[in-house]
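Entry 12.
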Amino acid sequence: MPARLPSWAWVSGLTLGAVAAVAVLAVQADQGPHPTVAATKPSASASAGAHPAPEASRPAAVPDGSGNGRRIVYSLGQKRVWLVDASDAARRTFTVWPGTVSPDPGTYTIGTRRDATTGSDGVQIEHIVYFGTQDGVSVAFSNAVDGSSPPPPASGAKTGGVRLHKADGEALWAFGTTGTTVAVVR
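Predicted 3D structure (C-alpha cells):
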C-alpha cells in the first residue's frame, strides 16, 4: 500500500499554489492600463440611487386656493410642500416623495406628532407629523433617520407616508405643531 501524504503537506502545497497564482495575476495587473484622475469633478446632480433626488430650482409660488394665514401647503401634482407664515409668505418650499395613498384635496389639521418609529417600508423614520387618513391609511409627513429616499413600495402596498429630505423634515417638525392647518391641493 502506498504511503499517504500528511494533511499539512496538502495544505502547504495548496497555499503555495494560491500564492503563486496571486503573484502572477498581480504582475499582469501591474502591466495593464491604470486609472487616471479625472480633471473635472462630478456635477452635483449626479445620482446613483434608484430614486432621483427632488430637484431644487427657483422657489415655486404658493398655490392659489390654498387658504390664508399660517399653514402647510401640500401640492399633490407638484409633489411639493410650502411652509407659509401668518402673512401668507412662503418661508420654505421643498419637493417630497409621496406614498402610494394620497389624501383628498382639502383642509386638514395636524393632530398627532411622533418623534420616531419604523415606517411601513421598514425604514427608521423621524419627525412624523400626522394630518389625515385616506382609505384607512394614516397620512403623515416624515423623514428617514439616515436621510435616504424611500425604497420602491411592495406591489399593492398602501403607504401614506410623505417622505421628506432630512433638513426639510426638521423644518416641518419645527413649523408643524399640533393644530397647524395643512392645505392639500391638486
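Annotation: The two ends are 88 Å apart (CA to CA). The chain has two helices and nine strands.
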